[in-house]
């Protein structure tokens, strides 16, 4: 009877030890200080440290400002995969966002990753224009089509170091 009971405990214990197991290279990714509108994508590496295939069933962000991407394919024992996390860097200020990772790991079916950082206002760039020769030709545009870019552009007055003669180009 005792041998049978010990045998069952040993089999059950081995069965639990023989499974998929999830681990991460890091659970917190600190963006540091980034500029508004900059690339908000970062990567977490997930590794299967068990001996059976690991499946990420869901990766769930806390809000719509964070978008995860991951492979639905099983992660084989000893192999790794990446979870790509995008944060909307058009939202200025400090942030700390949890991302829940659900898997078939029997010991850790739910893991939490965190992204954090600070998004500062976009810096204004000043460009210098040097014209040689001092005479430039410019086409006068009376009607313009809508812009194809998604970035906002402000019209600015340009001051040149030397006088420039403007001539209208006739079509």
Automatic annotation (TrEMBL):
InterPro entries: DUF1573, Ig-like_fold
Signal peptide: 1-19
Keywords: Signal
Domain of life: Bacteria
Coiled coil location: none
The protein's name in its UniProt record: DUF1573 domain-containing protein
Phylogenetic placement of the source organism: Bacteria, Pseudomonadati, Bacteroidota, Flavobacteriia, Flavobacteriales
């Amino acid at each position: 009877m005792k041998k049978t009971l010990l045998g069952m405990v040993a089999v059950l214990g081995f069965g639990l030890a023989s499974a998929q197991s999830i681990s991460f290279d890091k659970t917190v990714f600190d963006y540091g200080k980034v500029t508004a509108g900059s690339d908000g994508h970062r990567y977490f590496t997930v590794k299967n440290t068990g001996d059976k295939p690991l499946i990420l069933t869901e990766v769930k962000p806390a809000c719509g400002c964070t978008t995860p991407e991951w492979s639905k394919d099983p992660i084989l024992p000893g192999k790794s995969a990446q979870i790509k996390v995008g944060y909307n860097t058009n939202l200025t200020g400090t942030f700390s966002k949890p991302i829940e990772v659900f898997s078939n790991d029997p010991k850790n079916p739910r893991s939490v990753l965190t992204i954090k950082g600070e998004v500062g206002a976009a810096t204004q760039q000043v460009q210098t224009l040097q014209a040689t020769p001092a005479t430039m030709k410019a086409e006068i545009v009376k009607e313009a089509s809508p812009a194809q870019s998604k970035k906002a552009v402000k019209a600015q007055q340009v001051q040149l170091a030397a006088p420039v003669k403007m001539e209208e180009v006739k079509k």
